[in-house]
Amino acid sequence: MKLVRYGTAGQERPGLIDTQGKLRDLSAHVSDIDAATLVRAGRARLAAIDPATLPEVAGTPRHGAPVAHVGKMICVGLNYTDHAAETGATPPEQPILFMKATSAIMGPNDDVIIPKDSVKTDWEVELGVVIGDTARHVSVADALDHVAGYVVVNDLSEREFQLEHGGQWVKGKSCDTFGPIGPWLLTADEVADPQDLAMWLEVNGHRYQNGNTRNMIFGVAELVSYISRYMTLQPGDVISTGTPAGVGLGFKPPVYLRAGDVIELGIDGLGRQRQRTVAYSDAAQS
User: Fold this and answer.
1) Which of 9, 53, 82, 99 pairs as cysteine with 245 (C-beta 3.0–4.6 A)?
2) Residue 215: Cβ-neighbour burial (10 angstroms; 0-12, 13-18, 19+)
3) pLDDT tens digits, the chain, 286 residues: what are they?
C-alpha cells in the first residue's frame, strides 16, 4: 500500500494511492496515518479494504508528510562508505546517531526555508524507515518485523550550525522545514529488499547524488536492532538512515543552497519530492 496524508497543512486527511495512481480517501476507516494505523493490526485492516470502494479525490491536493504525530526522528550519520570518504571521515565502527526535531517535518513538496543567517544549507537524500510495532532490544533477525514501511527523506542540514557552533549535530539538522518526508509511505510488504533501492537528488536540474542503499555501512535491520538497544522504538517513529555521496559539503569548493533553488529527489518505489528554497525573510512575511 502507498499511504498518504493530503490537504492543507495541519488539516491533512488520510488516503492511499491505488494501483492506477488515483488518490483515494481513507477517512471513513481511519482518523489519520498515525501509530494506531501503522501497527501490524492496523495495516492488516487497511489491506483488507478494496481501494475501488474508497472515494476518489479530485484534483491534485497538497501532500503532507505521510506519517502523523511522529514521536521521534532518529538520524544516522556517515552511513555510506562513499559519503564518509567525501567528507574525509573514517567509516564508523558503530552507527552514529542524532536526533532531528519533529518540528522540522513537512510535506515532500513544501518550500524549504533557508534559515536566518545561514550560508551553508545542504541537501541529503535518505531512506526513511517507519516503525510499525514497538521495538525494544530486538535482534537483527527480527528487526524488519517491526517496520511498517519506507519513505523518502530529505535530511537538510546547515553545515555551519552543525559543525562550527559547538556540541552535537542536532542544531544543524533541526531548522524549520529541514525534514521533508514522502510523498507516500510504502508498506514493508511491498519492498522486497530495503538494501537494493536506487536513490538520487538534483538541484536546479543538475544531478548531485546517485546512490543505492546497498552501500550502507549498517543496513536497515542492523540499525533497527542497534537503536532499539538504547531507546524504545514506537509506532510512527522515523529512522533516517544516511545519505550517499554528492552532498554540497563534499565538493571543492562546497556547493550550498540559495533562495530560489529547486531540489528534486527520489528513491525507487517510494516516489519523488520537489522543493523550492525561499529566504528566511520571505518566509516570515508569508
Assistant:
1) 82
2) middle
3) 999 999 999 999 999 999 999 999 999 999 999 999 999 999 999 999 999 999 999 999 999 999 999 999 999 999 998 887 887 878 899 999 999 999 999 999 999 999 999 999 999 999 999 999 999 999 999 999 999 999 999 999 999 999 899 888 999 999 999 999 999 999 999 999 999 999 999 999 999 999 999 999 999 999 999 999 999 999 999 999 999 999 999 999 999 999 999 999 999 999 999 999 999 987 666 5
**Assessment of whether the complete model's pTM goes beyond 0.90:** yes
| Peptide bond preceding 66 in cis form (omega within 30 of 0) | no
Q: Which amino acid is at 157?
A: S
Tallying the residues shown for the chain, one arrives at 286
- Please state, in angstroms and rounded to a whole number, the distance separating the CA atoms of residues 27 and 40: 19
CB 11 within 8 A of CB 5: no
CA-CA-CA-CA torsion for 244, 245, 247, 250, nearest 10 degrees? 150
Determine the Cα–Cα distance for residues 246 and 85; give it in Å rounded to an integer. 11
Q: Is the peptide bond before 115 cis (omega within 30 degrees of 0)?
A: no
Cα angle for residues 79, 137, 84 (degrees, 5° grid): 10
DSSP, collapsed to helix, strand or coil, labels residue 85 as: helix
- Return d(Cα 24, Cα 43) in angstroms, integer: 16
Residue type, 11: Q
Dist. CA 189–CA 43, nearest whole Å: 10
Q: Which residues, in sequence order, are bridge partners of residue 134?
A: none
Contact of 137 with 228, CB cutoff 8 Å: yes
Q: Are 241 and 214 in contact (CB under 8 A)?
A: no
Handedness of CA 131, 133, 137, 141 (dihedral sign): negative
Grid coordinates given for 188 = 514493508
